[in-house]
Amino acid sequence: MKQILRLLFFILISAKTFSQNATEVNKIIYLDSMWSPTTAENYKYTRLIEEYYSDKKSYVYKDFYKSGKLKFIAITLNKDVIINDGQAISYYENGNKKYTVNYVKEKKSGKEFSWYENGDIKSEITYSENKKGSQEGKINNFWNTKKERIVADGNGYYSDKSENNEQSGQIKNGVPDGTWTGKDFKKKSSFIEMYKNGELISGITTDSLNVKHSYSKKHLRPSPKNGINSFNSYIGKSMRIPLEARKVSGKIYMSFIVDEEGNLVEPKVLKGVGYGIDENAIQLIKEAQKWNPGKIRGIPLRALYKLPITIIGK
Question: What Gene Ontology molecular function terms does this protein carry (predicted)?
Fold first, then answer.
């Protein structure tokens, strides 16, 4: 009887130890609506990075809705700054697949399949690099909500409407061609675009105040007004390293928001090097000059920007 009790005690202790170890090697991050780290009291999503505290070439991570339902699962080459590489699967909150795609160093590659929330097939898109080195997605097939294939083998009239927006236009050889129109229901804006063989020639967005915004690129990332090299120079020259940390080397991984006016706000250190250097980096972001804001279809928007800062000890 004593031997049985000792065996049960050993099993319970082993199970508890295993459970603790499994918890300790993973890392949970709370994220807000901008996918920026936040607190456990003010989050919209959570991210679990498996075996975070292990030294590996890649890491599996999972994003969850606030309800606890799985939203996304993928592989990253960096545990502090997400660089997708390999197969990724996105899910609706009801558990149905949203899309599956393969990444190569954060760029989509090969075929992406997507579905509507009810599980019906939606699209098949092929991603590759064009002659300019930019990523290009070609729509091979697209089904509407009535299960009708309105784009077949890269040709047809594309029309898609969701809760937040709608857009429609001709698809020729897998890419937009001719006139495209659409609406953003949340922002109460509309757009009209002209394409030629997949190249955007021009676009005009009319916002909620009836003001027109012209553009030649659909998506513009935030950028320093004098260029990224000038901004990096500002960081390098202004960074203060305490005397006791002169030999410290490593990388600070930061994130901040570039708002609609180009202000750099809400700077956060995702992973730091300590010795007060992280706090100095945050202060430099707060004191930085305005950037060019990010834009979608000519309209400025708040955008998350991630910045690595390399510290080299002397």
Answer: energy transducer activity
| Structural tokens at position 194 | 């002209």
- Same structural domain, 230 and 197: no
Encode pLDDT of 21-51 as tens digits.
544 689 999 999 988 888 999 899 999 999 9
pLDDT at 13 exceeding the cut of 60: no
* DSSP label at residue 26: -
What is the count of structural domains for the chain? Answer: 3
Distance CA 142, CA 153 (A): 9
- Widest distance between CA atoms in the chain: 84
Dihedral angle, C-alpha 67, 68, 72, 75, nearest 10 °: 150
One-character DSSP codes across 75-98: EES-SSS--B-EEEEEE-TTS-EE
**How is residue 121 written in tokens?**
């097939």
Asked if 97 and 165 sit in the same domain, the reply is no
Question: Does 175 reside within a domain?
Answer: yes
Distance CA 244, CA 310 (A): 18
Take residue 15 and report the two structure tokens written for it.
Answer: 């199970």
Same domain, 246 and 165: no
In terms of domains, do 162 and 95 share one? no
Domain that holds residue 188: 120-216
Q: Domain boundary at 157, 184, 216, which?
A: 216
Last residue of a domain, one of 194, 216, 238: 216
What are residue 31's DSSP bridge partners?
37, 45
Alpha carbons 30 and 72: distance in angstroms, whole number: 15
**Could you read off the pLDDT of 96-122 as tens digits, one per residue?**
999 999 999 999 999 999 999 999 999
pLDDT digits (tens, 9 = 90+) for 151-202: 999 999 999 999 899 999 999 999 999 999 999 999 999 999 999 999 999 9
Is the pLDDT assigned to residue 17 strictly greater than 50?
A: no
Nearest to 177 by CA among 202, 150, 195: 195
